[in-house]
Amino acid sequence: MDIPTFLVQCLNAIQYGLLLFLVASGLTLIFGIMGVINLAHGSFYMIGAYLAFLLAPLFGDHFITMLVAGMLLSAIFGFLLEWLFFSYLYQRDHLQQVLMTYALILVFEELRSILVGNEVHGVQAPAWLSGGVSLGGVMTYPTYNLFASGACLVVAGVLYWVVNRTRLGMMIRAGASNRDMTRGLGINIRLLYRAVFAGGVALAALAGMIAAPAASVYPGMGGGVLIMCFVVVVIGGIGSISGALIAALLVGFVDTFGKVFFAQLSGIGVYVLMAVILIWRPQGLRNKGF
Amino acid sequence: MQSSALPLSTAASLAAPRSTGWLVPLAVAVALAFAPLVLETYYQELVVKIMIYAIFALSLELLAGTTGLVSLGHAAFFGIGAYATALAAPQYEAGSPLLLLALSMLAAAGYALLVGALSLRTKEVYFIMVTLAFAQMAYFVFHDTPIGGGSDGMYLMLRPVLKLGDAVLVDFEKPRHLYFVALVLLALCYAFLALVLRSRFGHALAGIRINEQRMRAAGFQTYRYKLAAFVLAGALAGMAGFLYVAKNGVVNPELLSWHESGAVLMMIILGGLGSLRGAVIGAAAFVLLKEFYSSEALLGAAIAGRWQLTLGLTMIAFVAMLPKGLVGIGRRFTFNRKRA
Predict the structure, then answer these.
(1) Facing residues of B162 across strands?
(2) Chain A closest CA to B118's CA: distance in Å?
(3) Domain A3-280 has CATH 1.25.10
(4) Which of A45, A82, B21, B270 is the S-S candidate for A197 at Cβ 3.0 to 4.6 Å?
């Protein structure tokens, strides 16, 4: 493998890893704080991608405005969803929640099919992001993919800042480490749950919107992402955002280079990685803290 | 995942089994034995499908409901059982069902031993995810390599035939023979698990679900008990896989996919965790609901084409109204009667 190809594959791995991180960070927050195993999280990614497909023609070149608008819409959606379905289930057995989120996947898939149909769609990248950047004069790398990685990094930074440096983040961390004590201190835990859930949905949808122009938008796209995100969350340690970032990049590299070197069995690589890490450290890489 | 949140009443009912508890399953088995006299072919096939999934669900019930080990990769053993039969069956003559069944169960149990030995080191959500990872590995082995025909899967050209000398005893090609084989295997599986639950081994498993720490303190090597339950559950899932391929004559990697693992987990949650009949009822309800909602004859093409929506909404309604699963309805009913 020559240097430019290696570089391109590295960029691909980083981009895939960062996208996974966006989806997985929402999943890990929701699990860490609310204790809900949300199988429907992949559907939020799919919803985001379809949002991009629907919103892109309206916003044209104002791509970033579109991302913000889509995030707001999906946060409202998440807020309502938590209010209508999840808020009743916290006292129940975990498996009841699993059953409901599984049912939600079916509902979302069918609603998607009713509203937008079953065709595979493409989303046009805005004009100012089309084209490529040359790498060593031999190869070009799509500008949009660089933008996607950059946008994910910005969001990751904002997330870090919110969780570690703001009052809201303080409440989130408190809620994760001791729910009852947090409530005892007079913090509205119901509202906190609702906000965290809405945030998780918005992050997954944002990942879907960012991924849409780089890949295609198709039915069932949530399923693959969901499983990969579970792998990421478990490798990183459940509830840990920094763990999710490390794990997502690890998964991105293993998956991308697995495809390059072992095309035949590339699907297995990530799962082997997960099995090895969990046998080595049964609680994931970072099981304490964010 | 707090497994002790499972109904403790199961443990109580295990300790003092009601003497008439076996009557209902026996009556159902007898009714099913006479059912082919009145059932049309379509319904007979549907019942066979339910029985196969009931065995599959029962095997997971031993793991999730009894021992408290929730696996999201149980379809791997189902699929490996099915592939073992399809791969080992001779190409130009009918295979021996006993041999193929034994092979299916052994292959599934072998993989379960490997997966269980490694994944039982982890707990709760991590356990769910590790079992999922091992199932995905098996899925990709069959999906990406030519061993089992790749992503297209493979056919079982000739259904197995049980012969004694020259006389044909059981021919899997005949729907009615297949029906009775499935019924006998389901009855055996149910009776076997009922006995297991009453045995010392079964009590130990229930004890592990409720408080593993205490079981260890009481001198039980819980890891070995859990591993035995895992392998047993894998072997029984392999049995269901054998029946699946004997019925459908085709296998493909989707049998091992996480959708299938999810579906069987949904069956036992829907039926009600912690009881064998819950697993059977859940399997029947899941298969029937899916069949009903996707039936164009009953609901018309417009609604039948949207079965995911109707099935999903029904499941949400079940979660909202039946926190103890479908068996909870019966319990509520009997409780009321006793009080009256």
Answers:
(1) B170
(2) 7
(3) no
(4) A82
Is the pLDDT at B179 greater than 70? The verdict is: yes
Closest CA to B207 of B6, B72, B17: B6
Q: What are phi and psi of B250, to 5 degrees?
A: -150, 145
**Residue B201 pLDDT more than 70?**
yes
| Cα(A132)–Cα(A29) distance, integer angstroms | 35
Flag if B132 and A227 touch (Cβ within 8 Å): yes
What 3-state class would DSSP assign to B274?
coil
Average pLDDT over residues B94-119: 91
In this predicted model, what pLDDT tens digit does every residue of B208-254 receive, in sequence order?
Answer: 999 999 999 999 999 999 999 999 999 999 999 999 999 988 899 99
Q: What is the pLDDT of residues B253-274, one digit of tens each?
A: 999 988 899 889 989 988 888 8
Where in B76-178 does DSSP place strands (E)?
A: 154-155, 161-164, 167-171
Residues A110/B308, Cβ–Cβ less than 8 Å: yes
Which pLDDT does position B335 carry in this prediction?
A: 55
Say whether pLDDT at A137 is over 60: yes
For A84-226, strand residue ranges (E) read 121-122, 132-135, 139-142, 216-217
Angle, vertex CA B162, rays to CA B231 and CA B40, nearest 5: 90
Probe site for chain A from B61, B128, B140 (most A CB atoms < 10 A): B140
ipTM above 0.85, yes or no: no
Domain ranges for chain A, please list them.
3-280
CA distance B141 to A142: 33
Q: Is A281 on the interface with B (CB under 8 A)?
A: no
Using the Cβ of A30 and the Cβ atoms of chain B, whether some distance falls under 8 Å is answered with: no
The DSSP element (H or E) to which A10 belongs, if any, is helix A3-34
Reply yes or no on whether the pLDDT at A128 is more than 60: yes
Q: What is the pLDDT of residues A228-286, one digit of tens each?
A: 888 898 888 887 888 899 999 999 999 888 888 877 777 788 888 888 887 788 788 87
- Token pair for B300: 């018309």
Q: CA nearest A231 in B: which residue? A: B129
Angle CA A270–A266–A44, to nearest 5:
55
CB within 8 Å: A274 and B311: no
Core vs surface per residue B198-217: b (16+ CB within 10 A) or e: eeeebbbbbbbbeebeebee
Sign of the alpha-carbon torsion through B249, B255, B259, B263: positive
Residue that the structure tokens 């303190």 belong to = B217
B118 contacts chain A (CB < 8 A)? yes
- The Cα B302–Cα A163 span in angstroms is 47
For A:91-150, CB contacts with B below 8 A are 92-96, 98-100, 102-107, 109-111, 113-114
Confidence band, pLDDT 50/70/90 cuts, at residue A198: very high
Q: How far is CA A188 from CA A79, A91, A136, in A?
A: 15, 17, 55
pLDDT at A213 over 90: no
- Would you say B99 and B107 are in contact if contact means Cβ atoms under 8 Å apart? no
